[in-house]
């Protein structure tokens, strides 16, 4: 009835260290004795497993400590969390924790990412493939909202940057051409960090480009990049950069897949066009669609950073004030207006990549205060995705709320919202004109928007 001093059926998985003689199934039966839970975990489809991996990148979401402390924690917790997926998932690169202030013990990680492998992942068509999943964490700190999310006032010419190398720091600029492939400067900084940091754990000393380059030619192996929230913007942007730079040359291009969820918009129309060409839709039922951003129509994060209803009727910042009903809360409208000005300072219009949309459960009544609005926004950004994907894995594991990890306070939870709080505080008095001549681009905007579609839960 006990194992290493813990009572059977408790949820403190991170305190367990399974001996080599204990099988995965036996370990889970000790830990989660419910046959129904074990059966449900064994039946997870490929998209559910990939989504769960993206959430597991957030295991340290509100944990605080130095970079070394956080690195030790994620190396301990992640392999145990992977057991809940069943199958043969193993970490093959990373995990990596990066902090802007590595010795600051009072803040959390700024970036967390890893690669896990399943040699026999079953895909919707019934085929089993050797599969590597690169999972990128979402927003966890003020650094990420201010630098990675809020730096939409400047852009980076992606192809010009790749000429210098994806592991070199990007250079910010203001958009000067409709024909250049631009991504937000903050997203480019995030991609640079993800691509340039060497793993201190599995595959030590390798950056992601050198890791993928070390593979033999692999005609059947699949690689999937995934992330939720900020990770939902970083993962497709990183996938595009690694593919364009030749880092994935050992793999067939159609075996490189992307599965972002709840991602804000990262780039301009040219980027959205090229992304759709390089990563064409792999259709499926409901959320089981590769290479599309899976979004909740009631999640405000996915409404950032497009400022044009003509460019993207379903995903633009103008939808935010009344997303939970009319009339709009004045503070929300003011925050959106300020953040829209900030995005327009880039001189470009951000255009979402193709998306597959579901609609979360609407609030019983319209929020009438900023606090109520942000509480609903947090629910739609997190809980509604867990509900949509029907994950049987205990939520406290996926959200990083297990023993030894701090729970997110209500105030910290509200800080997850990128448009209305952190970014407004960063608004400067710059007033630059938005890119002219948008009417001529209406057809291209519509073509990208029409690739997106909704599905019923």
UniProtKB/TrEMBL annotation:
Residues 196-303 form the Fungal lipase-type domain. It comes from the Eukaryota. GO terms for biological process: lipid metabolic process. InterPro entries: AB_hydrolase_fold, Fungal_lipase-type. It holds the Pfam family Lipase_3. This is Lipase class 3. It comes from Rhizoctonia solani 123E.
């Amino acid at each position: 009835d006990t194992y290493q001093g813990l009572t059977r059926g408790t949820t403190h998985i991170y305190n367990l260290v399974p001996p080599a003689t204990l099988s995965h199934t036996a370990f889970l039966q000790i830990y989660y004795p419910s046959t129904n839970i074990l059966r449900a975990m064994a039946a997870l489809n490929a998209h559910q497993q990939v989504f769960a991996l993206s959430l597991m990148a957030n295991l340290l979401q509100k944990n605080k400590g130095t970079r070394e402390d956080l690195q030790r924690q994620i190396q301990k917790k992640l392999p145990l969390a992977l057991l809940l997926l069943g199958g043969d998932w193993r970490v093959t690169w990373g995990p990596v924790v990066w902090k802007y202030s590595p010795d600051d013990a009072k803040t959390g990680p700024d970036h967390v990412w890893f690669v896990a492998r399943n040699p026999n992942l079953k895909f919707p068509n019934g085929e089993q493939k050797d599969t590597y999943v690169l999972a990128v964490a979402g927003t966890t700190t003020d650094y990420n909202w201010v630098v990675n999310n809020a730096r939409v006032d400047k852009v980076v010419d992606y192809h010009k940057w790749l000429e210098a190398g994806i592991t070199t720091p990007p250079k910010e600029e203001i958009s000067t051409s409709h024909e250049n492939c631009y991504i937000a400067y903050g997203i480019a900084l995030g991609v640079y960090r993800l691509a340039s940091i060497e793993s201190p754990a599995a595959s030590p000393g390798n950056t992601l480009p050198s890791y993928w380059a070390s593979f033999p030619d692999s005609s059947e192996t699949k690689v999937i990049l995934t992330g939720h929230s900020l990770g939902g913007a970083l993962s497709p942007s990183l996938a595009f950069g690694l593919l364009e730079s030749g880092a994935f040359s050992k793999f067939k291009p159609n075996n490189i897949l992307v599965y972002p969820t709840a991602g804000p918009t990262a780039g301009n129309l040219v980027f959205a066009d090229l992304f759709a060409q390089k990563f064409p839709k792999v259709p499926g039922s409901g959320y089981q669609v590769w290479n599309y951003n899976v979004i909740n129509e009631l999640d405000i994060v996915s409404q950032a950073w497009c400022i044009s209803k003509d460019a993207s009727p379903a995903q633009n910042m103008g939808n935010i004030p009344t997303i939970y009903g009319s009339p709009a809360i004045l503070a929300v409208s003011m925050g959106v207006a300020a953040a829209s000005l900030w995005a327009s300072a880039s001189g470009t219009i951000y255009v979402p990549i193709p998306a597959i949309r579901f609609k979360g459960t609407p609030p019983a009544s319209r929020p009438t205060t900023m606090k109520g609005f942000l509480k609903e926004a947090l629910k739609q950004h997190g809980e509604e995705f867990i509900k949509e994907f029907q994950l049987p894995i205990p939520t406290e594991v996926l959200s990083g709320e297990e023993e030894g990890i701090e729970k997110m306070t209500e105030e910290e939870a509200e800080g997850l919202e990128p448009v209305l709080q952190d970014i407004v505080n960063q608004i400067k008095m710059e007033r630059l004109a938005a890119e002219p001549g948008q009417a001529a681009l209406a057809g291209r905007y519509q073509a990208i928007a029409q690739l997106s579609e909704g599905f019923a839960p």
